[in-house]
Amino acid sequence: MLTRQGRTVLVVSLGLVVAGRLLGVSELWLVGTAGLLLTAAAALWVRGMRIRIDTVRTVNPRRLHAGASITVELEVTNRGRGTTPVLQLRDFAGPAGTRSVGVGATGPTLLNVPPLRTGEAVRTSYAVRCGQRGIAAIGPLEVVLSDPFGLVALTVQRSVGAELTVWPALQLIGAPTHSRWSDDGQRPAGAPPSFSGSDLVGLRPYRAGDDLRHVHWRASARYDDLMVRQLESPPDDLTTVIVDTRASTHTHASFEQALAATTSILVACARRDARVRLLITSNPANTDLFDSGAGSGERFTQSLLDELAVVQPNPTASLPATLAGLQTAVGRGMPGATGHATVLVGGDTHDLIPLLTALGGSSSEMLAVAFTSGPQERIDIDPRLLVIDGETSFEEAWSRAIGRRA
Fold this sequence. Notes:
8 helices, six-stranded mixed beta sheet, Immunoglobulin-like, 17 strands
């Protein structure tokens, strides 16, 4: 296949040949003919070249959050008998499948490989920033052979691609820990939701995102390193996160923000080995309700993030039906029991207020997060409602909410 440079040489050469014939200028005809012969010789050279190479692609990591970058490492080994010419590797990055949102790549990545002797291998790498969540594809990898003048290029080998999962964006926040209001699990009337209080079981090194209020300064001075209190939740503590995916209550921006907030909450819980339960709104009959059940651990959290990577706005979703099914559930960590907290993540501020009131029982710690498309009138009817708009970030509002009782 002719390259852009090859097509230019071909068109110019044909023009010179025609001009030379019409004007009777032999020099133009000779130069044009030489260009045509050079293009033909380049095509024959490329087609006659026989190479045998092995390619290995390594993608690290295969799962990551939106906004992060992956590193793609390529290893090329010459398995033929002779030295290879200069090769070009062309790797593609883009969406794969109907469930994908894509990685935000704009075109193929081009890498040049110097001549390789028999048995010689070379490694190269490049980075791709994954700007959007979804199931993305890297590849296929093409090995392109070109002539020394760059007039003709031929794909001589193509290898399969690799898929990776891009989770929603992550923000480092504190985990919603739980408190016991009294021996019977009742909360004082009019008190705001509390997301604090756990049992101290030891010390551990500081990690990014840890609450600075948990730093043990005396131990940090002794070990010459920041040490934080290792907290353990009571055995019946559970955080239930409900994601409102109704298409009528979201813009594209608010939907992605809601998924990023949900991801951040789940990861924060996983960092302290707390149990979580994820529910994603379904249709009025609850036939497509996603209910993870209560669980904990790295694999469990990854399975939840995999689901959030591909979820889309649901035009038939019904949040009241989902909440009704949640309240009637038995034995699956229903909010309303002592030590249980519920976080409702949605898009419509006014619509969440009555649902928040209906769901938040006196013995359940309840918090709702509403994402709006722009600045709106502040709603202070319920202290358990966090309104995230253009003036307030989720990290700030969340930090204030979980810091009400330290």
